[in-house]
Amino acid sequence: MSTKNEHHSVPLGVLLKREMENEKTEKPDIIYGQANQSKKGEDFTLLKTECQRVLGDGVTTFSVFALFDGHNGSAAAIYSKENLLNNILGAIPSDLSRDEWIAALPRALVSGFVKTDKDFQEKAQTSGTTVTFAIVDGWVITVASVGDSRCILESAEGVVYYLSADHRLECNEEERERITASGGEVGRLNAGGGAEIGPLRCWPGGLCLSRSIGDMDIGEFIVPVPYVKQVKVC
């Protein structure tokens, strides 16, 4: 029981969700920003809104947000930033409806990552990069990731969802098992005298990640196939 003057607080996220449900908004407004501190000049972002599924119609739009955390040089991160989106879109037939286009995204993301890695390795450069790539179309978010750059979604109810996988060997037992089953080795850096230091790494090469784009000097155990997750947030 409550009195007339008693007030109950309601989280802002819940109020916003109620308002959106009442208005039946088909496409949310996207507010975005970025902040970064790149010590070695190897990290890059891609932010593109109003991308068109059908060129020239100005209606069928989606947004792209991506992070490329390079290592051993910036070449792989720059190449991925400049080519990955086109490779993803090139893997999707042009005559699909919106629902069909969204359904085709997960497979297209995998194809785009693999093609980008293959094309970059033909350049014979040894750098590599993590990639976390998010496509927002209406209320549907599709994320593909290799490496350890995280994508996190907080719902209107305050629940946190992880939309990316962590491919750091230190914390991913499944990836450690995949590498050893394929003939690779996982271990720490040998500092001599039996002492081991630092995070778990893949040998040969010594990379602490199990998936990336580039890293041709590491060998076949580091793969570009991304973890993909698609969610509808409303």
From TrEMBL:
PANTHER family assigned to the protein according to its UniProt record, in alphabetical order: PROTEIN PHOSPHATASE
Lineage of the species this protein comes from: Eukaryota, Viridiplantae, Streptophyta, Embryophyta, Tracheophyta
Xref: PROSITE patterns: PPM_2
One Gene Ontology molecular-function label: protein serine/threonine phosphatase activity
InterPro entries hit by this protein: PP2C, PPM-type-like_dom_sf, PPM-type_phosphatase-like_dom
Domain spans labelled PPM-type phosphatase: 24-234
Descriptive protein name: PPM-type phosphatase domain-containing protein
Organism: Tetracentron sinense
